[in-house]
Amino acid sequence: MSTFETSPRETNGEAASAKSAETASGLPGRKGPVEGQGGAGEVPSFTITLKLRRYDPEKDSEPHWEDYQLTMHGTDRVLDALHKVKWEQDGTLTFRRSCAHGVCGSDAMRINGRNRLACKTLLKDLDIKKPIVVEPIKGLPIEKDLIVDMEPFFAAYREVMPFLITKGAEPTRERIQSQADRERFDDTTKCILCAACTSSCPVFWNDGQYFGPAAIVNAHRFIFDTRDQGSDLRLEILNDKEGVWRCRTTFNCSEACPRGIQVTKAIAEVKQALISRKL
Predict the structure, then answer these.
(1) What CATH class has 12-148?
(2) pLDDT digits (tens, 9 = 90+) for 141-183
(3) CATH code matching the domain that covers 151-278, chosen among 1.10.760.10, 3.40.605.10, 1.10.1060.10, 3.90.380.10
(4) I need a labelling partner for 50 at 20 to 30 A (CA). Which of 1, 120, 231, 241 fits?
(5) Are 138 and 205 within 8 A, CB to CB?
(6) Beta-strand runs (E) in 118-268
(7) Is the entire prediction scored with pTM above 0.85?
(8) Residue 133, number of CB atoms within 10 A of its CB
(9) 8 Å CB contact between 68 and 50
């Protein structure tokens, strides 16, 4: 998965291009009328307080909170507010983002106590009368500010072998699959590996060995693929004491998924597959 970690040096070019838009509109990165000016197409503006959990390992012994006052617009998302802080108030702010369209999964954060993608969360959908609280996702080591170490997450993902396993000679044409067979695992193909589900799980917070929902979702995608021949291997891995049986069915993962995957249902189906195999 491609990610982009912002830093003062890396945003110089972006700041320069934003400057040209500022000349036309009076606001960085925004064209057209602003608050107090007339004209069709005017976007309403409002003031927010962005409360960020900051941590610089070179300076801080513990994370701390910092507040930023911002003038934002009705079309802005939390990611736009973070950019505004970085480009205009504090260039040391560090966070991940890539596509900014809810596809790459890079900017998963804890926003007002819930795991969300910053690029998909509209500010106007939050309670802007109160501070908007943004912090890193839980259960993974914090590297700096809103960036966490994703390696434990990806280690669990790799362990379930998230790829097609086949036997025999290479096929001479594509492996045909019916629409009904494809539909069986369609939901779990939507995962973007943002870790929002895994880092919302209380079991994962308290047990660093648990595979976590995302790894199980990606195992599910191949366990129920009729073209795959590695289902038994994956089921054996997930039958481990830190596998699917650690799930407590709290539904946090399903609520946190920005793609609407029925994560808890997928985990239950893997459990059922294990029981059926034993019988």
Answers:
(1) alpha beta
(2) 999 999 999 999 999 999 999 999 998 888 899 999 999 999 9
(3) 1.10.1060.10
(4) 1
(5) yes
(6) 132-135, 142-144, 147-148
(7) no
(8) 16
(9) yes
